[in-house]
Design goal:
The chain is α+β, with helices and mostly antiparallel strands. The protein is built from 8 helices and 5 strands. Strands 2-1-5-4-3 form a 5-stranded antiparallel beta sheet, sandwiched between helices. A hairpin with a 3-residue loop joins strand 1 and strand 2. The radius of gyration is 23 Å and the shape is elongated.
Length: about 260
């Protein structure tokens, strides 16, 4: 099973694939797409380009999204092309059913020809069609990391919109999308880590100036507040930086020890 550190190592087709697709003519277009994604500095813009390109390039696709599944229970739609994919992902969470909560973990690629006749996830299929008008789906695994998953989901309002060609183009596209998606997440995580470090540094500076203590004492004070209030250290630092106040839950202990 592929993980987030090795995106693009998937590629298993669904049971419906008969191997009839010929995608050699797309090589140049995918090369251009890869170069475009690599040159994009804005991760949000890059992921929006991924979705828009998938909808444009994969035969049969009308809408799309990148879905992130956490703990095999919650499906979050990222950069949906419209309200349709966002609501479909919500319905997977609400019903506890759907390709991203089941088959994509094991089969890696799932094709749904007609939600009106779908028997694998009856409640989800009924509500997805009746509430959004979605009829066909193509879900392609981007990565699996423990109980978390990333997937490219494509939708159509027509029955049997996706065929072997759609699936093979989608799998090739997913190899690029997986790299872009994993890279964007790493960049976002790095930015978040740097922001957290800066916040803690600013909070320490405030405490050092206010109480005339050194950096180690200021950090111990922050961690003591974090532990006593059962809050993340980042949240404690953020509160101090933006309000100038420290948690009142410590009572008389809200003064750093020297």
């Amino acid at each position: 099973m592929p993980d987030q550190t090795t995106p693009g190592t998937h590629g298993e087709p669904s049971a419906e694939d008969e191997g009839t697709a010929d995608i050699n003519e797309l090589a140049q277009e995918f090369g251009d797409l890869a170069r475009s994604l690599q040159s994009e500095d804005d991760t949000d813009a890059m992921l929006e380009d991924v979705v828009a390109s998938a909808v444009r390039l994969v035969p049969g696709a009308e809408e799309g999204s990148l879905s992130v599944v956490t703990d095999r229970r919650h499906v979050d739609s990222q950069h949906p092309s419209s309200e349709l994919p966002r609501r479909v992902d919500e319905l997977q969470t609400e019903t506890g059913q759907g390709p991203c909560l089941d088959a994509v973990y094991e089969q890696q690629t799932v094709r749904v020809g007609d939600l009106r006749r779908e028997e694998r996830w009856p409640e989800f299929a009924h509500r997805a069609f009746s509430e959004t008008g979605a009829v066909s789906m193509l879900s392609i695994q981007l990565y699996v990391e423990g109980d978390n998953l990333g997937a490219l989901n494509l939708y159509s309002r027509e029955p049997d919109a996706f065929d072997d060609e759609s699936e093979q183009v989608g799998l090739l596209f997913a190899s690029h999308a997986a790299v872009a998606f994993a890279g964007a997440q790493k960049v976002d995580n790095l930015h978040q880590a740097l922001e957290t470090r800066d916040l803690i540094g600013q909070a320490k500076g405030i405490l050092m100036e206010r109480f005339h203590i050194d950096g180690a004492q200021a950090f111990r004070f922050l961690t003591r507040i974090s532990s006593s209030s059962q809050r993340k250290l980042r949240d404690v630092a953020d509160e101090l930086v933006h309000t100038g106040q420290v948690s009142s839950q410590l009572g008389s202990s809200s003064t750093p020890e020297r």
